[in-house]
Amino acid sequence: MLILGIETSCDETAAALVKDGRSLLSSVIHSQIPIHQPYGGVVPEIASRSHVERIDAVVEEALKRAGKSFEEIDGVAVTQGPGLIGPLLVGVSYAKGLAYALEKPLIAVHHLDGHVAANYLAFPELKPPFLALILSGGHSHFYDVVDYGDYRCLGGTRDDALGEAFDKVARILGLPYPGGPQVEKLAKKGQARYSLPKTMLEKGSLDFSFSGIKSAVKNLYDKLEPGQREKADMAASFQDMVFTIVKEKLAEALVQTSHNKVVIAGGVASNERLRHMMQDLNAKVFFPPLSICTDNGAMIAGAGYYQLQKGETAGLDLNAQAGLSL
Amino acid sequence: MAHEKILAFDTVSSVCSVCIYDGQYHSFETTTSYGHAGELMPLVHRALESLSYSLQDMDAIVVSLGPGSFTGIRIGLSTALGLSKGSGIPCYGVDSLLSRIYPYEGKIRIPLMDARRGNVYGASYGVVEKEAFNGPFLELIEELKASGSKEEILFIGEKLENFHEDAKALKNHRFLPAKELAKGVIQAYQEGKATRDLRPIYLREAEAKQRLEAKGC
């Protein structure tokens, strides 16, 4: 079964073709990073304008690279949310028109379900149930994945998402957008020698709070004279502290759920230091390959396949939802 | 000879409007304001179905490219692109100011859309000609006075009450409602005013870009 996946929730216009939810035939991603760089972050109106300019060509390219025709597609999957409403509406509107014209099922996919499903593309042996930790610009949440597309939230951030905290620390340190990869790069040159607060919240809690750590970086930066600021050390200290917290919470979540498999997904999961630090957990740890770790159409097609298997299709009145819950 | 069959829609203002032409114009509209994202495709489907057509019976898809609501423009255009890609039916775009003049005859027809803070998207067709612009309504009034034309001016648009007072500086004018929006889109296409260059007509940069440019970056 061949699914076309379309993703436009933020600053990537992406489309991909996936066979049977597991096999990636093509993936095309048009990144808007250079467009948003002058603004230090994603500007929703500018992102929306770029999506509508690119979507047609991106979808066509995905078909071409897979060597498939539109008639061979069995369904059109699209990110319904969460994300930026203007960008989401471009993908949803396009997918609705396309599915209608092709007389194929339309499938509305949750962006986070997509991030988890990216792992199905890389690991044939991975099947629910398992524990999932999603770390992205908008989310930092634990889920008990009971079945394909069936999630129970176990806890999540009470303030900043981890990716958001990375972006804010990047801004404090004067690094350009997108901040996450920049902090990671700088941290490689530094030592984690600054002491930052280890916010663990109540005993046994699977919630996170990252805003205090981010503020501590800001206070540290402001306190030091420009000549004394070891930015690389600050980046390394921040990164190691947040990942230490993530690791301890993850160990706790594994105990609480008795799972022996965990999927770590979302844009932050592309961080090499995170991947390294999670090696010795008491479970099999899955990280998606870097090529499908950040936003892409393949993960949406993958998740869409399992929804279609369950008969979960969307109607023509489908609307994008910025705050869609899982 | 059979008539060319045309499907058109306009989602750049508050009303979601669909029209099918098959020798006659069949108009379909929803009454909710700015419900395009959820309503456009069901309305397209209902329009086709009520005339016992399928999408494949159409020879052309024509969409309103703006100016107007940025989000509305993109919902219409994205939908049209998807429909066209999946069906192989060619897609065309028309200027949404031009398409709004068709319901009315007159020597000076001026379609307008509220662009907030005293600004309008507008254009003037007829004895006084003015290309599509985004600017203060008061400037338009001054230009119309300076033109010296005595012809009646027809302002065409929705929700323009805020501009009625300023327009009183003109002696001979009327405000008329924009209507049958998608029908106008088809009429513009039939007069050869459509383009295959399917880029939105915003007439205004994103605000963040305006601010950045103001800083001289």
Description:
The complex is a heterodimer of chains A (326) and B (217). Chain A has 326 residues and is an alpha/beta fold. Chain A folds into two domains: 2-118 and 293-309, ATPase, nucleotide binding domain (Nucleotidyltransferase, domain 5); 128-288, 2-Layer Sandwich (Nucleotidyltransferase, domain 5). In chain A, 42% of the residues lie in helices and 20% in strands. Chain A has ten helices and ten strands. In chain A, the strands form two sheets. Chain A has a five-stranded mixed sheet, with helices on both faces. In chain A, strands 8-7-6-9-10 form a five-stranded mixed sheet, with helices on both faces. In chain A, helix 4 crosses helix 10 (297-309) and helix 5 (162-172) packs across helix 6. The longest helix of chain A is centred in the C-terminal third of the chain and has 27 residues, at 231-257. Chain B is an alpha/beta fold and 217 residues long. Chain B has two domains: 6-97 and 179-209, Nucleotidyltransferase, domain 5, CATH 3.30.420.40; 104-176, 2-Layer Sandwich (Nucleotidyltransferase, domain 5), CATH 3.30.420.40. Chain B is built from seven helices and ten strands. Chain B has a five-stranded mixed sheet, sandwiched between helices. In chain B, strands 8-7-6-9-10 form a five-stranded mixed sheet. In chain B, a hairpin with a 4-residue loop joins strand 6 (108-114) and strand 7. In chain B, helix 1 crosses helix 2.
